[in-house]
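Before a colleague's protein record goes any further, I have to sign it off. Thanks in advance; the entry in question is below:
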Amino acid sequence: MAKTCRFSENRLIAEAFGEAQAELSQQVRRHVAGCGVCSELLEQYRTLRARLHDWPVPGKEAEGLRRARQALEARLAEPQRPRLRVQLWHSPVGDLLLGATDKGVVFVEFTRPNQASTQLARLEHDFRPEQAGPETAVLVQQLDEYFTGTRRTLDWTLDDRLMRSDFQRRVLRATAAIPYGTVISYQSLADTIGQPSAVRAVAQALRHNPVPLHIPCHRVLGSDGRLTGYAGNLVDTKRAILETEGIPVRHTRRGLAIAAARMYVGWRSHSRLCRPDCADLHAQTAAERVLIPSLARARELGYQPCPGCQPELHPVDASPLFVPD
């Protein structure tokens, strides 16, 4: 019987041979309940399964059935690799390769000309890459709004299968909570997850963040304010993203760094806002510290001015930013 439905035949095979995982099995059952073509084909595969297992065939024909069984088993491996819709987008900070499965966005990677095919080949062991569709068009639209300043959060559902460990998941969850237009240090992030001595491990977890921009690892800096490694070595990209969010960055003898002396200091636990020279900051722990570029942004986040240094009455110096220190 010719199959005219576009539903994956491999999924029907997996269900017929009892190899489908629970989620896939539910998808097949829902589909065949309303599709006569696939329902009939599923029954044919179930019949074939019974014959392959139970029908005794002597001699050389048994070898033929064995090979047929092996061929079908090889096909059964295919549905276990999730579909991956891939989109290449030319963003204001460089080309981005976006990937989404049925569960959600699984990766965002910066790429260069002629690199995308190599990056995709690396993923083919775990995924079945397909042409981009409406799912990735929504991602691109939100990214475009983010870079033009009309959106501050990316409302994406994530597929976390490329996250490497429970430790990395903890680091990335804490990173996802850093508000737009603010920055913290790697030390602050390590303190936040309760492992203050794990600064290097935190940095490595962020280095391998599979979904940058959505999980804003660009908002995490060195304790001295320097823009250390981003997506490998894309420090200029990190600068451009921070500047999109209103974070002042300057060139120094040590490299690119935020202008920390021209930023306000927030207390994360009780939303108090200080000038960077406030005497009360000597009691502030790294986990408490967040840097905010403007009074307006601090107000949006609900911070209240410190009664001691009175940042609203004595705003931070707004002198030119791009001067060497």
Confidence is low (pLDDT under 50) at residues 319-325. Residues 9-79 form one domain. The chain has three domains: 9-79, 83-147, 166-305. Residues 36-54 form the longest helix (19 residues).
